[in-house]
Amino acid sequence: MSLSVKTRAERFVATLRHCQVLGLTVESAQDNVLVMRLPYSEQIVGNPVTGTVHGGSLTTLMDTACGTAVFSSLPGFELCPTLDLRMDYMKAATPNRDLFAEARVTRVASSVVFTECEVFQGEERDLVAKCAATFMRIGENMTPPEFRARIEQGDDVTAAGAGQ
Predict the structure, then answer these.
(1) What pLDDT does 152 receive?
(2) Which has the closest alpha carbon to 33: 130, 101, 123?
(3) What is the pLDDT of residue 159?
(4) Are 26 and 35 in contact (CB under 8 A)?
């Protein structure tokens, strides 16, 4: 079965409970590039006085965007855990505005996948943070068959089946 890169990415994100809770969505995906949206909400606010987004929300967005780009770009169904994520905060995110992460797979080696990501707001692409992350290739044979079936078949994943 041949799925588009965007379909693979959307189905992967649908299996991750934190994506459901935070409302993360795949806006676009093509070979080696993925854009993900984190909608602004009270759940991600770190400073309730100013409405500034918590840094952990940005880290989660970048890690998830990079990991999804890796999963959807590799042939087969290979889960790749995060090895390292180094991020730079450029400025505080503007309250009440959604965040977008553009993740790129920059190199695929035999045991490691290298990525970069930028988080921005608005059409003017106001840069908030960026990161470089690496992911460990563990091999397609280490992916549980049930997980592969969910991606291939597009099963609707409920909270009970998604990492509780």
Answers:
(1) 87
(2) 101
(3) 36
(4) yes
Which residue stretches of the chain are H helix? Answer: 5-14, 17-22, 55-73, 145-153
Written as one letter, the residue type at 71 is F
The candidate with the shortest Cα–Cα distance to 87, out of 107, 73, 103, is 103
What 3-state DSSP class applies to 126? strand
**Are the C-beta atoms of residues 72 and 34 closer than 8 Å to each other?**
yes
**Tokens 């990415």 sit at which residue?**
9
Residue ranges in the chain whose pLDDT is less than 50: 157-164
Report the C-alpha gap between 69 and 64 in whole angstroms: 8
Q: pTM value?
A: 0.90
pLDDT of residue 155: 62
Half-sphere exposure of 129 (CA within 13 A, CB side): 24
Q: Measured between alpha carbons, how far is 22 from 86 in angstroms, rounded to an integer? A: 22
Determine the Cα–Cα distance for residues 30 and 111; give it in Å rounded to an integer. Answer: 22
Q: Which of 90, 72, 71 is nearest to 81 (CA)?
A: 71
